[in-house]
What we know:
The chain has one domain (19-142). Helices cover 76% and strands 0% of the residues. It has four helices and no strands. It is flat, with a radius of gyration of 19 Å. Keywords: Membrane, Transmembrane, Transmembrane helix. This is ATP synthase protein I. The chain crosses the membrane at residues 23-44, 50-73, 85-107, 113-134.
Amino acid sequence: MSQVPTEERPAPPENPGWRIEHLPLLSAVSMALLLCAGSAGFLAGGPDAAVGAAAGVLIVTLSYTMSTLVIAWADTVRPALLMPLGMLTYVVKYSLLGVILAIGVTIKWPGWVALGWGIVAAVVVWTGVQAWWVHRRVVRKVI
């Protein structure tokens, strides 16, 4: 069933799958990074650091995947929902992260530093791979 375009509701795009077609690549890269971070954490600080580093990568992977899915869904349902749902997603994610960190600072766990490094590594890798993917897609469209 296709939607009829009106002034209030534009026609949906021909192929809405492009909004999430990068997720399989990013998920695979994130899982490889999770294994590398866990291994590096284990070698650097033992089992606690391994769990912390892997958890940091997993937190970023789940967070970014959730944002991508919410934004892609909102864009296919009604583009006017993009900003409110995108902002709500970020508010929920960062509020949850703030609560977790506020509770976490009272816990004396040796894996906290590794968790932080896992988060940093995942943000850098995810952002870099996504930027590379977007660049490759744009170049492919231009050529």
